[in-house]
Fold this sequence. Notes:
Number of helices: 7
Distance between the termini: 47 Å
Number of strands: 0
CATH superfamily: NusB-like
Structural class: mainly alpha
Number of domains: 1
CATH architecture: Orthogonal Bundle
Oligomer: single chain
Mean pLDDT: 91
CATH class: Mainly Alpha
CATH topology: N-utilizing Substance Protein B Homolog, Chain A
Shape: globular
Amino acid sequence: xxxxxxxxxxxxxxxxxxxxxxxxxxxxxxxxxxxxxxxxxxxxxxxxxxxxxxxxxxxxxxxxxxxxxxxxxxxxxxxxxxxxxxxxxxxxxxxxxxxxxxxxxxxxxxxxxxxxxxxxxxxxxxxxxxxxxxxxxxxxxxxxxxx
Length: 147
């Protein structure tokens, strides 16, 4: 398994912990997870960067998921699926060096491994819709600045 996938698994664990036990300081959360799960040295900065991006931008990320998840309130989405979606949205928004298809494929793999039998399809469909929506927004921003 790749180092970045290991980092994503650790982020998923951290987000799940926050869901179950409540908010924590990012540094304490990182320390707690790294004691439980070994993230390769080469991916520790990636782990920290994604976790921090999600926690600091949770409202924006949740709003994007809510907007695109037709007929699904955020609190009705399974905890694992919701947190995989948060990882995906954070990567799409804040990590332009990661190809969007890589992000979506990695999230699908997480959903297959940690979610239900329907999770991979759900995550794929929602992230694909979010990606298309974000691309439209980016095109609109570019066109409005060119005018």
